[in-house]
Amino acid sequence: MKVTYRGLLLAVSSSLMYLTMATSVSAAPFQALQPLPKQPPVPLDNPMSRAKIALGQQLFFDPRLSVTGTHSCNTCHNVMAGGEDGRAVSIGVNGKSGTRNAPTVWNTAFSTVLYRDGRAASLEDQVKTHLLSATEMGMPNEQAVVARIAAIPGYVSQFAKIFGGKEAVNYTNIAKAIATYERTLITPDSPYDRYLRGDKQAISAQAKRGLDEFQKVQCVSCHFWVNMAGPVPGLAFQMGEGFYELFPNYQGSVYDKQYQLAEDLGRYNVTGIESDRRMWRVASLRNVAVTAPYFHNGMVKKLEEAVRVMGKTQLKVDLTDQQIQDITVFLNTLTGKFPEQKMPRLPFKPNSSVIDLPLQ
Amino acid sequence: MKVTYRGLLLAVSSSLMYLTMATSVSAAPFQALQPLPKQPPVPLDNPMSRAKIALGQQLFFDPRLSVTGTHSCNTCHNVMAGGEDGRAVSIGVNGKSGTRNAPTVWNTAFSTVLYRDGRAASLEDQVKTHLLSATEMGMPNEQAVVARIAAIPGYVSQFAKIFGGKEAVNYTNIAKAIATYERTLITPDSPYDRYLRGDKQAISAQAKRGLDEFQKVQCVSCHFWVNMAGPVPGLAFQMGEGFYELFPNYQGSVYDKQYQLAEDLGRYNVTGIESDRRMWRVASLRNVAVTAPYFHNGMVKKLEEAVRVMGKTQLKVDLTDQQIQDITVFLNTLTGKFPEQKMPRLPFKPNSSVIDLPLQ
User: Fold this and answer.
1) Which 8-state DSSP code applies to residue B246?
2) Contact residues, chain B, for A354 at CB < 8 Å
3) Cα B195 to chain centroid, rounded
4) How far is B18 from chain A (nearest CA, A)?
5) What is the pTM assigned to this prediction?
6) Exactly one of B136, B182, B245, B305 is catalytic; which is it?
């Protein structure tokens, strides 16, 4: 299997750029399976605060960040559900679709890179590009985004309080606030996590068989560590250093055509580097039972089928129906506890619609 | 001014069909200005319960109720904001738009009829038609809606518990649950309400002048009673008896053309009755400062301009700039307290996307 990453995988070292809040960091021998931390790694230049989280939550749910006023971050990354939209590919503003399945926003705090092709190095970067994408939020430029938010007194006062300075409402701060909220979207205490922590009854006998298979057939060689997606920032990796796998790793199975697996060149489209052809960020398996459909193009509708396809294309194994059932039952133990949230209230511009203002 | 309604407006009588939970019902002399009750009128055949409200909230926020899985009730009636979408007209599934401005869902518990043309007699009826409208949720038929919800175990168990019976997940019960949640969307305790209850400092001197003007120039002749929209069910009116006004009442002003006020024939399109031409349900002024743009077609972007237009077209009055400012300041006192809500969690079908299931 072809896997690319930089940095020393087996050494657990904290990053200079990141202040890790995980309680389990140690220099202990490498354990491939680890419970999800309840606290995210936090970049030193964007510390978290209650006020910033609250602001970020409002912005995350605010459709006025899209050119038509119809799409918020939550439209395609629905935190009331699995953090995505249940569609093969999302529909952005003006009916436009991209070509990739929206990945979940849950537990992205533990991603080293964002987007399926790893083209954003941080949650902050990711926000900045989503807002300006013509197939997503569709805003024409950074100034237009800032103008929308700056037109709303209830936002202006929050930005001033949190970020200070004369031009507190700026593009970087908008991204920082949203990223801060996203770092709170963590689903700890899944049955799997409780099992790893020592509660032997937390998962069923079938799930335990599934976990054994998951390790034996080597699913775990990519889907490991706290987020079941390889390294996380602040532990072994620097933020922005992606952990990628070739997909399909073994080309030529019937699935390539059936699910159009090989058409999108993945990370190659970002870097133009030959060895990046069909390289994809390893996807987290956390909450995978609630984030159908599957794969970068959303072409596989059922988790059982996704397991079968992965066996064939990545590991060159024809998994038996029993193995697939067992692994799927195991994967269902990765559904964590979604934290309770208060619904935000969006501030307004009195007597005037903000999306009717002319764009710059 | 042409206003149509049935029933005896000045008598306060409780409806046989409705159990009113308002505490202020009495046979006292008619008072045009009344504070908003904190409890909604509730139809006897759809009593409220905590469990039903919680279910209705989940459904209200669930985009799987639309054919494409992209639009929930909340998409166009955003309860995190003013209960609408800040657009002139909404964009439904598949990029389709209707021709009318989405009215707010806040305080619709106090509406006698729903839709701007009054074509739904209850909140329950309104849900049923929205789901099947090609320009809104776009579901092909009732069975398809029921099949979507019935595919989700977490919904099935709730319906069974709340409604009982073998086929608890049915179209009527889906509508009942959503309508029940909508009845909780009440914004009491605005400065205006506190003023009416005796707190003379609750609104400014300018707002008091505005309130005087509002009464003197006769805005109040349509915008009265608890919802500032005429009668409410369970007080004088039966549910389903609409309170309509002709708009524009005085045709021929410059605004007819500027804002295309006379093109939509309103209630006439529903009934075909000549006297219903350009009759519109009187809109509530509650929270009007946060629900721009204005009027049935959303063509007026600012509240001040909406006041100016209403003076000219409805009352044949050229309001002065001072009057308009004062009335606008008064209207801003009608912004109530939006209740805190917990964000719902949407139940899921394990390992499978629901919107990928074939439609019936």
Assistant:
1) E
2) 86
3) 24
4) 31
5) 0.93
6) B136
